[in-house]
Amino acid sequence: MLLCLGVAITLNAQKFKVTQGSLSPLKGETSFNVQFTYENMTVGKKTEVQYVEEKTENYNKKETGRGNKWAKAWVDDREKMFEPKFIELFCKSNLSISHEPQKYTLIFNTSFTEPGWNVGVSRASAYISGVVTIVETENPSNVIAEISVERAPGRDAMGYDFATGTRIAEAYAVTGKKLPKFIMKLIK
Question: E strands of 70-170, at which residues?
């Protein structure tokens, strides 16, 4: 059973790949600005709009107003949970995110979200995929590099991730932890 779990974790491991440009101009840089975008994001097999409309309608049928509250949390969790988790873990590396203007900006566009589930007896981890585009802050049209982020897993180690936002936030935490290591490895 442990062997199967190890294989499953390995198969679902997060992957980074430079798909455009080079990270070599970043040599010596230790601090970046960051922006988060969610353009053209799909959720599972649906567009984000379809997913949110369907969930909102289903929750509102069960309890008036519950779907509207859920839809608001779906968007609010980005600023309240996902982005802070990414920044927190990113800053625990040799690189940091600054509130002061820096030479380069990381633009993380999440293009796919799998929210997963946890109903106690059955669970599936959340994961996210996207693209990190590194641009000159003063000239954003100058793209230094693009890094694809594939299948960043998210789940609470203790299994208390019953809320969708908690699972997805962990996927951002994992990305924030591993992305600096990937960058540092390529700019040495």
Answer: 96-97, 104-114, 117-118, 123-124, 126-136, 143-154
